[in-house]
Design goal:
This protein has 6 helices and 11 strands. The chain is of the alpha+beta class. Strand 10 and strand 11 form a beta hairpin.
Length: 215
Amino acid sequence: MTGSRLAATAFILAWLTPAALAQQPAQPAAKPPAAAQPAKPPAAAAQPAKPPAAAPKAATAAPTAGDVQPTLLGQYGDWGAYAATPGGKKVCFALAKPKTAKTEPEGRKRDPSYLFVSTRPAENVKNEVSVIIGYPFKTSSDATAEVGSAKFAMYTQNDGAWIKNVTDEARMVDAMRKGADLTVKGTSGRGTTSTDQYSLKGLAQALDKIEQECK
């Protein structure tokens, strides 16, 4: 279970990196040149001469990117609903960034943090709550997630956190559907504490959408 959680989180994290996001506009950009080629036949003839070496790479890279890159199913309030098929297995997830992010001491550098709820039918996983905190957690430390008066412990590994008691997950998701915001607190390996607050506006609709997409 832990392995599949790590793999799913790693996949989403890889997509969230600037390099992965940069590939998205690159694909549409590749189509306009094709439309422009007919207008300048000489240039079009010159291009095929050099791409042969690059063409095979693009051919192998394109299917991979197409299969793996998530598709936005819809934006609902502060949450986006996405679907992807890495390795031929469908994954759907709702994703949000924190509305506020604080560290103590102030000003400590950290990468962006995210909260997402994923569903993986092939693994019989539904509405798994995960956090990417933006720094390596302190070894063997727990993070906490609070929705209203409800508090949930999260076990940590590297920069990810998941609900410690899986039986609490459904209760947590239900609280998130009804709540206004969720607060995640954690401690880095350097002793920095962080407090991230996420808006839950639109989460219920985003979850309904991914449930419909990933049955």
